[in-house]
Design goal:
The chain is of the alpha/beta class. It has 6 helices and 6 strands. Keywords: Coiled coil.
């Protein structure tokens, strides 16, 4: 009969509506899950973007045309104990007595050619680097103008003679038999100790 056909059609429509509603709920659930997953990925990415900072110290010698050149350089990561130390060869310069007495390093002495300095500095992966003194910042800026260089003195860091008072701090092998307080390796650890205690 006609009424029986109508009931059958209505029943089919109800089933289709229910099926459609179920599919719609599943789609909405998948969209919600996907949105949550994207949010978690974004939060994870934000956590991974960690600002990494280092501390550099350098010792310079006076080269030709009264231009300072880096003789010794050390860097330490502020978050870990990762460090590196370099002594550069400046064999093209004339030996100066002052440099020998003050730094206890002859101009010819070194394990890295001075020409490698720019490559080394540009390979550093820090977000920003702390340096003590505007003169040192200006010299480093010539090699790494893209790097954020911060004068640690602006954070209140005192003079070296006030923070270089810990005999337990390490120094490079060369300065072990001389005055370790002239050593950049010793001084970056002194700066790091102050930084950690005052940040």
């Amino acid at each position: 009969s006609q009424s029986g056909e109508i009931k059958k059609i209505n029943s089919n429509l109800e089933q289709l509506n229910k099926l459609y509603a179920d599919k719609l709920n599943k789609i909405e659930h998948l969209i919600e899950e996907n949105h949550t997953s994207i949010q978690l990925q974004e939060e994870q990415t934000e956590k991974q973007v960690i600002i990494s900072t280092g501390i550099i110290d350098i010792q310079c010698i006076l080269g030709t045309n009264n231009k300072y050149m880096i003789k010794e350089m050390s860097i330490v990561d502020t978050e870990t104990w990762a460090t590196q130390h370099w002594i550069f060869k400046n064999s093209s310069l004339l030996t100066r007595k002052y440099n020998l007495i003050h730094h206890q390093l002859s101009i010819d002495y070194g394990d890295i050619e001075y020409e490698e300095l720019g490559k080394i500095l540009n390979s550093l992966k820090f977000t920003c680097i702390y340096v003590k003194g505007e003169q040192k910042i200006a010299l480093l800026f010539e090699f790494i103008p893209h790097m954020v260089l911060i004068n640690i003195e602006d954070l209140g860091c005192p003079r070296f003679d006030q923070i270089c008072n810990d005999e337990a701090l390490p120094c490079c092998i060369f300065h072990m038999d001389y005055n370790p307080k002239h050593c950049t390796f010793y001084k970056v650890f002194a700066l790091k100790k102050w930084f950690v205690n005052n940040s």
